[in-house]
Amino acid sequence: MAKSTTEHRDWYDTPEYYDIIFDADTAKEADFMEAAWQRFSRVSEARGPRRVLEPACGSGRLVLEMASRGWRVDGFDLGQEMLAFAKHRMKKAALSARLWIDDMAKFSAPNQTRYHLTHCLVSTYKYLLTEEAAQAHLRRVCEALLPGGLHFLGVHLTDYTRTTCEHERWTEQRGDVSVVCNTRGWPADRRTRLEPVRTRLTISRGGKRHTQETRWNFRTYSAAQLRRTLREAAPNLEVVGCFDFTYDIQSPRKFDDEYSDLLLVLRRR
Ligand SMILES: C[S@@+](CC[C@H](N)C(=O)[O-])C[C@H]1O[C@@H](n2cnc3c(N)ncnc32)[C@H](O)[C@@H]1O
After folding, report:
1. Atom of ligand 1 lying closest to residue 121 CA
2. 194: helix, coil or strand?
3. What's the 47 CA to ligand 1 centre distance in angstroms?
4. Spacing, Cα 82 to ligand 1 middle (Å)
5. Which band of pLDDT confidence, cut at 50, 70 and 90, is reported for residue 3?
6. How close is the Cα of 12 to the center of ligand 1, in Å?
7. Engineered SS bond to 266: which of 13, 18, 151, 234, CB 3.0-4.6 Å?
8. pLDDT of residue 2
């Protein structure tokens, strides 16, 4: 195999590789949301199609999955490449969804649509780097939900006592493309509430291999900080369930710092 090269590149400019690396859990996440929908939702508007909104929908892996399960799907993202990829895959699957460019902190749904379900998983919420943006997003989510509708929020909580780097490495394959994802998270800065993250994707395709690297900051949350933001931004979003990234509805967890991968089920009052 030829020598590997490394480039600095936003991984959201290459949606195919992002999608390969994150697609493994897609069906599990959708199964969980449907099971939680059965258990926790209280929407009285039972007739007609069930509508779901995915803020920051990325490559559209969950857009496709939910649409193929009969949900009417809306989604938006700031990344043009991600959105184009999502649109293309929906067209290829002969499924439809309304997809548009928008910002999590400022979005508005077309024609003031109200949803049965909204979701923001895999720490995407942590891209909102200020309290103002984080609260604005939650307020908009709450407004977009029907009373009794559910919001799923998945975030990796921060351990502020950690002084060493966190690593994760996994590999996925699709056809003749293999992607190794190597992530590193540096200790959080308590004052700025930022944690630097770096991801390296090594892609092997057609006998060639290259590595691309992306760096960014996530906003940090302890369980108490997340509770406070939720309470201040959206008192009408009630926590009705707490789980983790195993997406097992039979295994509830406490909403505290004991387990870092937190999946909240919130219901609009
Ligand atoms: C980790 S990916 C998640 C994509 C998708 N929701 C999923 O579960 O696979 C994060 C996505 O958030 C988008 N993003 C980051 N900040 C955003 C913002 N302020 N508004 C909208 N999208 C944003 C990125 O472009 C990227 O597609």
Report:
1. 8
2. strand
3. 31
4. 9
5. low
6. 8
7. 151
8. 52
Ligand 1 atom, smallest distance to 57 CA: 6
End-to-end CA distance of the chain: 57
If you measure from the C-alpha of residue 172 to the centroid of ligand 1, how many angstroms do you get, rounded to a whole number? Answer: 20
Q: What ligand 1 atom has the least distance to the C-alpha of 119?
A: 6
pLDDT attached to residue 6: 81
Take atom 20 of ligand 1 and give the residue whose Cα is closest.
Answer: 103
- Pick left, alpha or beta for residue 28 (phi over 0 → left; psi -120 to 50 → alpha; otherwise beta): alpha
pLDDT at residue 46 greater than cutoff 90: no
| Residue spans per domain, the chain | 5-10+162-218, 11-158+220-268
**Model confidence pLDDT, tens digit, residues 206-233:** 999 999 999 999 999 999 999 999 999 9
Sequence-distant (≥ 6) Cβ neighbours of residue 181 within 8 angstroms = 21, 168, 169, 170, 171, 172, 199, 200, 201
Tell which residue, 88, 126, 102, has the closest CA to residue 53: 102
Burial of residue 7, with CB atoms counted within 10 A of its CB: 0-12 exposed, 13-18 middle, 19 or more buried: exposed
Specify the CATH superfamily of domain 11-158+220-268.
Vaccinia Virus protein VP39 (3.40.50.150)
User: CA 239 to CA 254: how far, in whole Å?
Assistant: 11
Tokens read off for 229: 């933001």
For the structural domain made of 5-10+162-218, what CATH number should be given? Answer: 2.20.25.110
Q: How far is the CA of 126 from the centre of ligand 1 (A)?
A: 10
